[in-house]
Amino acid sequence: MDSERPGVPKGRVAVLTVVALLVVLACGGLGVWQWQRGNVVITEPPARQPVAPVSEIVDAGASGAAAVLSADEVGHRVEVTGTFDPDVDLLVPGRALDGVVGSWALGVVVLADGSGVPVVRGWVPEGTLAPALPTGTVDLRGVVQPPEASDLAPSTAALPAGQTWVVSAADLINRVDYPVANAYVTDTAPAAGLRAVPPDDPGQATRRLDWRNLAYAGQWWVFALFAVVLWFRAVRDERRAAGEDDPGTPADGPVHGAGGRDMSGAR
Amino acid sequence: MSAGTAGGLRSQAKVRAALTRYRVMAWLTGIGLVVLVCVGMPQEYLGAFGGGDGVTRVVGVAHGWLYVILLITTFDLGNRVRWPWKRMLLTALAGTVPFLSFYAERKNTHAVQAQLHAPVA
User: What residue segments make up the domains of chain A, in order of their start?
Assistant: First the structure.
């Protein structure tokens, strides 16, 4: 209200502003620190977890929430042991690798328990056929990925037999007569003639919230806010004090400079 | 005290209510801080009272929020009785020092009551 009045102690206002900024920075920083402490990482990132049998991560028989991969299951490295179903030898067109359009070779490995795990065997350039499915028992390493949604398909056009737009249990289940895991594994070390498809989704480490630290974070931010309020107040007080020297400006009420000021002197 | 309507305070009842709120919060926060420093810290860091962090877990967070409310009531009261910002700041800082908060509460209460009882001109 009285911003440009002469006599306002600009130096003191500047000092107050700098001090308030430092306090806000300190409180804000301490809040960020507590916020980070409150988000405790309890698992390693999935890519750094030890390789596990695929059946430990994905469960073809599960339904509902259990069938959905959690954030720390996506990206997990797994070992898939079983046999490729000779009836599922698919190409997924329209997949780029390093900017080159091609297709994914998709198969289903049948595990010992009779369930199937979709496996992206690798990538081939457009117009190239994928190498034949391996016969007999395979033991491959790969990375677990969440199933693709049907809207990922670049087109709704019908595809020739032996091709599909997305890697999804919902699609594969129509091609086989056993349960198929609602996920897929992308083979890390594909056979000759195929290039490895890097996993799209690296997954996340799981976190646990520590409410004590999160509460402290909130409190630090409140203190920062209080510093801003006090700064606002201090600058106003300084300007009013300067204004009192100006005879044309009445002081703020009768008590200003009397009751309030006297009490501050008592401390 | 200078002349003026009850120390220049517009509404005595509201100031009294604000003073009560401030006093309640000052006491709660002060007690919480003393419990934290005299019971919680020795328990967590010296193994006293059976050790563990039971007291700091509960009182630590509770005290933090009580202190936040104390800041609000301090600002509210200070606004109503027109404390200069330094007094608000000192009152707020006093709330972080064990036992000093009780002294500050007494000082502030006496000062506000003196303002409230100031003679009407």
Answer: 10-38+209-244, 46-205
